[in-house]
Amino acid sequence: MIKLAIIGTNWISRQFAEAALQSQQFVIAAVYSRDITRAQDFAQGLPCAHYFDDLNDLGSSDEVEAVYIASPNSLHYEQALQLLKQGKHVICEKPLAANPMQVATLLAAAKEHNVVLFEAFMTQHRPNFFQLKQHIEKIAPLRQVLLSYCQFSSRYPAYLAGDNPNTFNPNFANGSIVDIGYYCVATAVALFGAPRQVLASAYLLPSGVDGQGCVILQYPEFEVILRHSKISDSKLESELQGEGGRLLVSHPVSLCQQVQWIDQGGVVTDISLAQADNPMLEEAFAFAKQIHSGAMDADMCERSQQVADILYQVRRQTGVVFPTDEG
User: CA-CA distance, 212 to 287, in Å (whole number)?
Assistant: First the structure.
């Protein structure tokens, strides 16, 4: 069993902790928070014996072999880099870091210290994502793709009321494209690789981050349109269109809950497979597999770098700047 520590005391950390336990590949060895009381409160109901409020102490502990990071985006790079250098395997919530330069540094550090760095992009590990990928040839040649994820943020009313939540704060390396839009970008790259051109537009909030936007990824024979928003809501399905038919993915694209194949005759076939109730279970297994094998997956590393490159291009085109971009 892999001794896992959790950084972050939010709902997504709880979901991953439960997935890790369900996989029977991990034990929850520790929880970290700058407030030790919050770490202890978070761990209630979990079989956890150690609590840390000092990151160096966590990285130095023999009681921890791997760490799940779900802190604010702006802290991912610093925390992951320190833990990798201290010999810990790291699974870090998306986005892996605030810019592609930081991602490259993290990947190099993982290789140098012979540990696993894993970006927590759950979509790619879901059974229905594999179904989607395997059925693309049935609608070939591909011509147009729409990947949509628009969800009104529960924190937007607070922002409009004058608060400054992390979700809409550039100091926390946040905004629509790196949050909800990440799933659209990463899904496209996981399916098709890096595009030859990126074109982006966005509506910027007064805080300096994007509230919503659109991205076109151009490939040699087709284009992918990405719609993302934190300030409006949509249940629109994602769609892959080819000369041989269509593939539909239910909203939200991140979960791949249902995939349908529609041929040019209009015959609809549900190709969905049964999936775990906890959508992070499959990625917990994938992380454990890499730790046991002693090697990172080269394709996943390349995907992380390519996604970081695209997100950076989108931000440069739309004028979203993070403090970490300086220098």
Answer: 31
- Alpha-carbon distance of 269 to 257, in angstroms, equals 15
Other beta carbons within 10 Å of 212: 21
pLDDT tens, residue by residue, 159-181:
999 999 999 999 999 999 999 99
42 and 139, same domain (yes or no): no
| Domain contains 294 | no
Give the mean pLDDT of 272-283: 97
* Per-residue tokens: 167: 């979700």
* 146 and 271 co-located in one domain: yes
Rg (CA), the chain: 20
Alpha carbon 96 to chain centroid distance? Answer: 8
Partner residues linked to 238 by β-bridges: 249
Q: Give the residue carrying structure tokens 């069993």.
A: 1
Q: Domain containing 23 — which CATH number? A: 3.40.50.720
Contact criterion met (CB below 8 Å) for 116 and 290: yes
- Per residue in 285-307, pLDDT (tens digit) is 999 999 999 999 999 999 999 99
Q: For residue 190, what are the domain limits?
A: 124-280+309-325
Whether 320 and 208 have beta carbons less than 8 Å apart is answered as yes
Count the domains in the chain.
Answer: 2
60 and 205 fall within a common domain: no
Whether 259 and 199 map to the same domain: the answer is yes
147-to-38, 143, 186, 307 alpha-carbon distances in Å: 37, 14, 10, 15
Is 189 inside a domain boundary? yes
CA 142/CA 158 separation, integer angstroms: 42
pLDDT (0 to 100) of residue 325: 86
- The reported pTM is 0.97
Residues 275, 234: one domain? yes
CA 130 to chain centroid? 17
Give residues with Cβ within 8 angstroms of 108, minimum separation 6: none
Which residue(s) pair with 210 in the sheet?
A: 204
